[in-house]
Amino acid sequence: MTEQPPPEEDLPTARELELGEAGASPAPRLLVPPGNEPLAMLARRGFQATVAPLDLPFPADVSGARAERLVERLGHYAFRLFLRGAILRHGSFTPMEATRYLEEAGATAFAEDLVALDLATREADGRYLLRHPTASFGGTLEWYVAHELRGRFGFDVAAGVKFHAPDVGGDLDVVGAAEGRLVYLEMKSSPPKHLAADEVGAFFRRVRALRPHVSVFVMDTALRLSDKVLPLLQAELSTQPAPPPRRIVREVWALTPHLYVVNARQDLMGNIGLALAEGFRALAPPAP
Known about the structure:
By secondary structure, the chain is of the alpha+beta class. It contains nine helices and ten strands.
């Protein structure tokens, strides 16, 4: 039903309009943080995004050689699994309590890595304790991927971005800008069995509101994506029945020329790089 305009006699007069506007407070002047192209691109799309502190098991300002050592260890899938397990203990832990996938020697070596990186301390009875307890591994994964996008691919990045889009929930885990293109990466640090349809629906709402040039749905798992993850994503595509996904290599899939899904098999960042390369090529002019 079309809403009818109010009768003309109920409309404010020109003087009333001017008086009302003259008495109003000035609109706030919201500035984009200097040197952050992803946030500037969001502002140009009408979003006043803000960056929230990531929930990390180390100081957010870690830098230099220590940051590089940490990134090097996080590049190892087994270490990420171990750190995730240590975080989920929410207190002191033995090396074997933090993993179901390593022998004792390997688990102890990773626990000692945490000590060497100043992420944990040794406790009594062979136990360890994280120096900076966190709720989950998600913030660490976002930090790692953002760091590598900047260092390995030259993106300007922001992580943990509060979207503030009307009727669109959730954060933008990682956004990056390069070559005048905006990319958005959704990070999932839990196994596929924990992925719910409402999470996937929320991801698509963010993509449709933001309209990035390339989106990548990232699952930090070595498990197959075709069993559950791909069907959930395909069900949310605008085109139904959804076209079959295209395998690029391993578990790197294209759902559309602008939407990709990857897992961590062999190399998480390598897989993300492959997806971004496919997306950027899809945006390029036709080959001669």
